[in-house]
Structure formats: C-alpha cells, structure tokens
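Budget justification, computational time. The allocation requested in the original proposal was used primarily to generate structure tokens for proteins on the priority list. As evidence of use, we reproduce two of the resulting records. The first is shown immediately below.
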Amino acid sequence: MRVLAIDLGQRRIGLAKSDLMRVIAQPLCILIRPKRDELLMAEIKKICEQEEVSDIVIGLPFHMNGDESKGTEQARAFKSALESALNMPVHLWDERLSTVAATRLMTALETPTEQRKGKVDQLAAVMILDGYLRYLESQNKNHSSDT
C-alpha cells in the first residue's frame, strides 16, 4: 500500500504518493482548498481509495527556531480530523524548508513563474514524502540489524 503526503496550504494543497514498495516519492496532484475541510477530507478519502493508500503524512510547519506556528496548530487539528474521517494512520512530518527548497528547485529549472504556483506545493509534498520514506527505510534497517 502507498503513503500519501499532504502539503497543507491556505489556498492550495499539494499531494504526493509513494510507489507500492514505499521507496519513491512522486507528485500526484494539487487540490484547491475548499471553504469547508469536510469537502477536502472527502476528496482525500476518494484519492486514498483510488491510489491504494494506507498511511498519510502531513507536513508540520515549524518556525526555523523550532517554535510552533499557527500553521502547526492547523496541521495538528487537520491530522486529528483526517484520522477520524478516514480511519487510517496519519503522521506529521517536519516540513521546514520544503517550500523554500521546492521554490529554489523550480527557479533552478527555469520554470516560468505562472507555472510555479501549484507545482511548488506539489513538489513540497514530494519532499515531505521523500523525507518520511527515508525515515521509514532507516527504521526498517535498524530493526533488521537488531535480529
């Protein structure tokens, strides 16, 4: 089963998915955030069913000094609501600099400004997912070396 990553923005939501082996993170889509989170959760549930998702990871925005922000509180609340609505594990992942790194990459690739808006959110979700998948891989290696 796949892992779905969510870069939760105020206007746009970037989504990325893993492959079935949970090794490769790839962009999935961008959702325009509806006024009501219930509608967003319904859309995410539909995507999870279509893409065979068993786990979700949401980017958790901290300030650079590690302090929590308004976005951190919103991500935690969304996580709780999503867990209840989907009845599947939802994890939080430190997303510091993911949007900055995504923007820099888009600039380096000379992506036209008008194409960057949504793609930055999607690429940030890929970066969140990649970090989470690497963490899972390191945990699997640690557990296999214990035996």
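The second record produced under the same allocation is shown here.
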Amino acid sequence: MKRFGQTARLKPDRIEEYMRLHASVWPEVLDTITACNIRNYSIFQQGDLLFAYFEYHGSDYDADMRAMAEDPVTQRWWKLTKPCFLHHSLQEYYADMLEIFYHQ
C-alpha cells in the first residue's frame, strides 16, 4: 500500500461548484475509483486550496490511472470538475506531495 498526499488550487469563482459536485459524486465514478485500487480517499478544502489523501492498494499504479482516465463516466465527470482548477488551461490539477513523516 502506498499513501498519497496531493494539493491543488481552485479558481475562486468555482470553489462552490467544486464543493457542490463533490457533495454528490456519481456512483459510477466511485466504482471506478474503487476498481482502480484507491481506498481511504479524502479531499479537504480551505479557501481555494485543496488537499487530497488516498491509499493505493494495487500493484500497477500507472495502469490503474490509465484505466481511470479511459473510463467514459470518469471522463464526463472530469469535464465538469477540471475547469474548476486554477491552472486548467495548463492541464495542472493535483500535484503529488513528498511524504516526510508517517507514524502508525
């Protein structure tokens, strides 16, 4: 299992839209997340800053992320969510963080 922490910035005028979308995530999107071996997925928000945490329980992260990106429902979901990001025009969304401490 590998833990991921990620950050992103939202466009200030799209924060409420992003929050509204995530208050009712489509069940098919959640099914794809699960099928791609992601568990314990959380997104936190403070102003325009997002922090995401998830655990990857698979054996081929790149293949699972490709499968997610190829899912038609997830593609439709991303058409709604990705324009909310500050750097959407540069196709920059969540950036992985370096884990520097862990205590179980």
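A brief technical remark on that second record: The radius of gyration is 14 Å.
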